[in-house]
Amino acid sequence: MGLLKLLTTDPLAFALVVIPLLFSIIIHEVAHGWVAYRMGDPTAKWSGRLTLNPLKHLDPIGTLMLFLAGFGWARPVPVNFNNISDRRKGLIFVSSAGIIANILFAFFALLFIRLFSTPSSGMAYILVYNVCNIVAHINITLAALNLIPIPPLDGSKILMGIVWQRTPYLLARLEPYGFFIIIGFLYLGILDPLIRLIGWVIATLIGILLP
Q1: pLDDT tens digits, residue range 54-88?
Q2: Of 54, 70, 86, 135, which sees the most CB atoms within 10 A?
Q3: Closest CA to 33 of 15, 57, 17
Q4: Which residues are the active-site residues?
Q5: How confident is the model over 131-153, as pLDDT tens digits?
Q6: Is the C-alpha dihedral spanning 70, 75, 81, 85 positive or negative?
Q7: How far apart are the C-alpha atoms of 154 and 97, rounded to whole Å?
């Protein structure tokens, strides 16, 4: 269901979904910029992108798609790998940062549920439980999606960093069309089984780490 339809049918459910979704996407992008900054590239900082302020990150078309199709994106945080001494490590670490941030966000959401659940939990807990579950599901899905090695998803850049000495020519050629390929695969349901599989692996690992 598109978020616009959800807004008209169930405003509370809309708020419970859209706010965690927006901040999960933003945290993903900020993580890229923060790791790049720590590795020597101040581009994101100079651009004012190391902030959780949604206005600094929202992409008009990505936001519109979020409301219409339930799938959207933020403006990519600018990174100049020429400012990073080890470009190969920079490509791997910066690209991995958003995925790790989403996994950590999911972990802490589930940890919160685990730590604060009691036999006498009432309606307030149920609301918090639902929000935390939504946060965990959204972030696991975002991490799983971005691990797929299709440009411009982070998985493709991680792969290019790993095979640095023989950068896949196909990935470089696909990059201008990757976004349309991803949208098409999502629309046709081709990526759904892979996202669910990767998401299950991530959720299982989180479950093992939870106290």
Answers
A1: 889 988 887 777 766 666 678 899 999 999 999 88
A2: 135
A3: 57
A4: 29
A5: 888 889 989 999 999 999 988 89
A6: negative
A7: 9
Q: Which residues pair with 74 in a beta bridge?
A: 58
Q: Which residue has the tokens 């896949």?
A: 168
Segment 34-46, tens digit of pLDDT = 999 999 999 999 9
The DSSP annotation for 93-143 comes to HHHHHHHHHHHHHHHHHHHHHHHH--TT--HHHHHHHHHHHHHHHHHHHHH
Output the CA–CA distances (angstroms, integers) from residue 43 to 75, 80, 157, 184, 208, in the order listed.
14, 7, 19, 32, 37
What pTM was computed for the model? 0.88
Could you tell me the two tokens for 201?
């692996």
Which residues, at least 6 apart from 28, have a Cβ–Cβ distance to it below 8 Å? 74, 98, 99, 101, 102, 142, 146
